[in-house]
Write a structure and sequence with these properties.
The complex is a heterodimer of chains A (127) and B (229). Chain A has five helices and no strands. The longest helix of chain A is centred in the C-terminal third of the chain and has 24 residues. Chain A is mainly α. Chain A is extended. In chain A, 72% of the residues lie in helices and 0% in strands. Chain B has one domain: Four Helix Bundle (Hemerythrin (Met), subunit A) (Up-down Bundle). With 229 residues, chain B is mainly α. The chains are: A mainly alpha (127), B mainly alpha (229).
Chain lengths: 127, 229
């Protein structure tokens, strides 16, 4: 019992968590709202194919702000960063290899409507 | 044995004996949540990859489909979710800073209210409107004459819209459930400046759901721009 409480007492001394100031959270919050207004406003500006690039760039900036400050990745230097990098790496693999396949072939037959996409796949099972 | 168990149950710090210290315990919890979120990234990633492929194949149809959505609700809901991320962060911070349990409960309840407001706006005004307009996948899914030859692919866009926002809404509902449990734990005085790991890892989940919406908003609501063509 004394060991248990001693251990817990020892544990209490060990915790030295970085507490993010409220002003930082509010600054991030205001930046996120401004970026939302910016990305909405940019939709009314004709930039051709760059509209998509700008919209995604703003979304990446917003996601970075959330990950670094709200999700504390800026302050936590640990294994969680590896999990984050691994997630993004596999997401990159998923999208890159899907697109490298799709964009380098010219499919003759692709789904024409949502029901048309699913039903023909099972036709040989039924008939 | 029973005495030791009692001591452990009464342990106000929430410290589990298999860990070296509370810091290691929190690090383990955090890592577990980040690994879960990595699987969630790939879960949503499949939909984002499929969306990318079909948008590259049918840009005009996705443009038409996107114009069926109301940017005002999309933008408002983005702001609502960002507000809820702030209140979630402040809930965790008030536990870290050793604030009274009333303060933690206040921020958690505010987060729940904002999450519910998001779902209310989405279901009551957006999905219900689409239901009346028959632009919901399922029986009575209509093609409008002005879509012309693009009609099947516009329907495809609406499927992406409903499955992506639907999966996101499902995550919001789960998140609100988690927040309700946390509010109960806060009410029982579970959280201290030493022990707030459940708040922290639930916060990671809540912010992740926010990030998904940050990408859904421009991809679904702003596709093709809103300038006159």
């Amino acid at each position: 019992m004394s060991d248990s409480t001693g251990h817990a007492g020892h544990a209490m001394d060990e915790v030295h968590e970085h507490i993010v100031p409220v002003s930082t959270y509010v600054a991030i919050f205001v930046s996120l709202l401004l970026l939302t207004a910016l990305t909405t406003g940019m939709a009314w500006v004709d930039m051709g194919r760059w509209n998509l690039v700008v919209a995604l760039a703003i979304a990446v900036c917003k996601a970075l702000l959330v990950v670094l400050f709200f999700m504390h990745v800026k302050y936590n230097k640990g294994l969680s960063r590896i999990a984050l990098v691994a997630a993004l790496f596999w997401l990159g693999l998923l999208i890159t290899f899907t697109l490298s396949d799709e964009l380098t072939r010219h499919w003759e037959i692709y789904p024409r409507g949502w029901a048309g996409a699913i039903l023909p796949m099972f036709r040989h099972l039924i008939f | 044995m029973s005495e030791a168990a009692t001591v452990h149950d009464a342990n106000p710090t929430g410290f589990a004996h298999q860990f070296e210290d509370l810091e290691q315990q929190r690090e383990a919890g955090r890592l577990g949540m980040w690994v879960f979120l990595a699987t969630e990234v790939l879960f949503f990633g499949g939909m984002f990859a499929a969306y990318t492929v079909y948008r590259s194949l049918h840009p005009v149809a996705f443009d038409i489909g996107s114009h069926l959505l109301d940017v005002r609700f999309g933008a408002t809901n983005t702001a609502v979710l960002i507000c809820s991320s702030l209140t979630m962060a402040l809930a965790i911070r008030s536990a870290q800073a050793g604030k009274k349990k009333g303060t933690i409960i206040w921020w958690l309840v505010l987060t729940i209210i904002l999450g519910a407001l998001f779902l209310f706006l989405k279901f009551r005004f957006e999905w219900y409107h689409d239901y009346l307009e028959h632009t919901i996948p399922g029986v009575g899914f209509h093609n409008l004459p002005q879509w012309g030859a693009n009609a099947p692919q516009v329907q495809m866009f609406m499927c992406f819209y409903f499955f992506m926002t639907g999966l996101h809404a499902l995550h919001m509902i789960v998140g609100i459930g988690v927040l309700a449990v946390l509010t109960g734990m806060a009410g029982r005085g579970k959280f201290t400046s030493q022990y707030f790991a459940p708040l922290e890892i639930s916060g990671l989940y809540w912010h992740f759901v926010d990030i998904i919406w940050i990408f859904l908003f421009p991809l679904l609501y702003l596709a093709g721009g809103r300038y006159p063509h």
